[in-house]
Amino acid sequence: MAQAAVQNTTATPVLYVALELSKDTWKLGITLDRVSKAKIRDVRARDLDGLLAEIEAAKKHFNLPENTLVKSCYEAGRDGFWIHRFLLAHGIENVIIDPASIEVDRRSRKVKTDRVDAQKMAQLLARHGDGERVLRVVRVPPLESVDERILPRDLKALKKRREQAANKIQASLFEHGVDLNPRLGSFKDKDFLTALKAARQWDGKRLPPECLRSVKRSWQLYSLLTKQTKELEQRQRQVLREARAEPEKATSAARKAAILSQLRGVGDIGSYVLTTEFFGWRDFDNRSQVGALAGLTGTPFQSGNMGRDQGISKSGNPRVRTLMVELGWLWLRWQPDSRTTKWYHEHVGKGGSRAKRKAIVAVARKLLVEFWHFVEHGVVPTGAVLKTTNAEGSPA
């Protein structure tokens, strides 16, 4: 079958170009087939004119017509999707490769250079062009969807940094026997600084001067992060309010988030993360694809008479996977009469914490499929309760 595929492609030559990206230099691995050693060319990073010039030069080198089909690839990474969009705009069929899908030599020591990587990727791309399943291709989201993900991701990052600042304040004060938690109450700058000034060590002495300065700096950072967090939360609520009021004008992710937040136990933050990261721009054909993309499906290991399960694959979006486990616990609390909650209690019974941890992953997988049916087909999860709406039409 592979030989037949090669013979079919030789009738209409295809130029394969693999891009090995780095900060300063891009290495191009160029070949016509899966057998020949790839020709290597260097291009200055982000030199798009130079990239196109090398492709045209390769066509002349191989005596190919100007309208020859060009297929390219590069590994998913920090460069994102802009190179992909540039190549498509210039008539080049590009795919972005999941780096984890590239086969690796299992010897303890192996040659690893950008040149070797470019040559290997070019050969794999040619095999992929012949129809072999040697690569996993990353699906590229629309530019609008990429932009929408910034808000929930920034919000999570701000909360993490704020927690770090609060922990630093507490740790600095605990060192001297002072228990002053910046998270408790509604501290304002003046109130916290007054409490800090009044704080005393075990022997009644004031805190050391450098410790005070350090805590004040951390408090300023904590206050700034708290302010920015509230601004982003307000912006997120505004997006969902607009989506509920005028769904026809809202983006796909915002519209689906407004729908998903109608379920009791699913808040605005969780629904917005799920739709921007998962449901907003992806199309699923079946429930298996939903669970697999989140990395919540099992990973069997079988050899001869030996067989066991290695746990969930964790190959999907970690943000979605983590969030779904959290929503699973919330679902058990706020949707006690749902079919999924009843399944959990029947399955776990009087089991210990280990059984509960394993079962909650199954709950997360089941809920993700039910959420998919709800936002795409309007099917309410069996036994689930929707939130009541307030005067503004928002879930209460």
UniProtKB/TrEMBL annotation:
It comes from the Bacteria. One of its GO terms (biological process) is DNA transposition. Signal peptide: none annotated. Residues 258-340 form the Transposase IS116/IS110/IS902 C-terminal domain. InterPro entries: Transpos_IS110 (IPR047650), Transposase_20 (IPR003346). It holds the Pfam family Transposase_20. GO terms for molecular function: DNA binding; transposase activity. This is Transposase IS116/IS110/IS902 family protein. It comes from Saltatorellus ferox. The lineage of its organism: Bacteria, Pseudomonadati, Planctomycetota, Planctomycetia, Planctomycetia incertae sedis.
